[in-house]
Specification:
By secondary structure, this protein is of the alpha/beta class. Helices cover about 35% and strands about 20% of the residues.
């Protein structure tokens, strides 16, 4: 049924798995449908976010050196830049990564026009002074994000880190691995847990997306291919295995 108004969605993963790329991918999908999206990044600058958007839409990977773009690549980028000027998407970076500043950003975006989607990248970088412990602080942040989604009647996507223990324990992530606060799990309507499936395809980045919590629906797992250079996601198709028995049985007997 898509992203629902008044709901808090959490995309959680360890660094480098692709949670920011997935959030930008969702913002792109919304913008293409004319839904106004606001993306607040506390980890990347606004130009970096816009660069990822340009790479994903144009299909031209970021150059590794100055002057390395071909003429056709430059044309694609120029055409994409012209097209993107009309897209209803705003990127914001903020050195003052406070909960108050994020809420003020959403309020300002709402004043400028109808808002359809908001993203915060990522929750654990937000601060909210006045609490005696980090646990209480993160709990207040997750509650406020949930209340903002309900008050503004928009879906709000909050990115989250997972505990680093996963890297040494060699297991799939669970809801209990949400970093710093169990209240994120409690306040979220939907939680996606991302990790890399190395065994399925060593040559490709196959990402396992576990819909670990869905307050109003079913849970489940889906595999997607992640093109890291372009920041694009696509359906994963399992390779067709060579059937040695079938080939043997089809051979003539001598």
């Amino acid at each position: 049924g898509g992203l629902k108004n008044g709901s808090l969605y959490v995309i959680a993963a360890r660094p480098g798995i692709g949670k920011s790329a997935l959030a930008i991918h969702l913002a792109i999908q919304a913008a293409q449908k004319g839904i106004r999206s606001s993306y607040a990044s506390l980890e990347m600058t606004a130009p970096e976010c816009a660069g990822r958007l340009l790479t994903s839409v144009s299909g031209v990977s970021r150059p590794t050196a100055q002057g390395s773009l071909s003429h056709s690549d430059r044309q694609k980028i120029e055409q994409t830049v012209k097209a993107l000027r009309g897209w209803p998407i705003t990127f914001k970076d903020d050195n003052q990564a406070t909960l108050e500043a994020f809420c003020a950003f959403l309020a300002q975006q709402r004043l400028e026009g109808e808002l359809g989607l908001a993203v915060i990248d990522y929750l654990q970088l937000l601060t909210s002074p006045g609490f005696s412990s980090r646990h209480e602080e993160v709990s207040a942040i997750s509650r406020t994000c949930k209340s903002q989604s309900m008050e503004m009647e928009i879906p709000l996507i909050g990115l989250s880190q997972l505990n680093r223990n996963l890297e040494t324990q060699n297991r799939k992530p669970a809801l209990s691995d949400l970093r710093e606060s169990g209240s994120i799990e409690q306040d979220a309507d939907v939680v996606f847990l991302l990790d890399k499936e190395k065994e399925l395809s060593p040559s490709k980045d196959v990402i396992r997306i576990n819909l670990a919590k869905n307050r109003n629906g079913e849970t489940g797992v889906v595999m997607v291919e992640f093109d890291k250079k372009l920041g694009r996601f696509s359906s994963y198709h399992e390779p067709v295995l060579h059937d040695a028995k079938a080939e043997t049985s089809s051979q003539p007997s001598w």
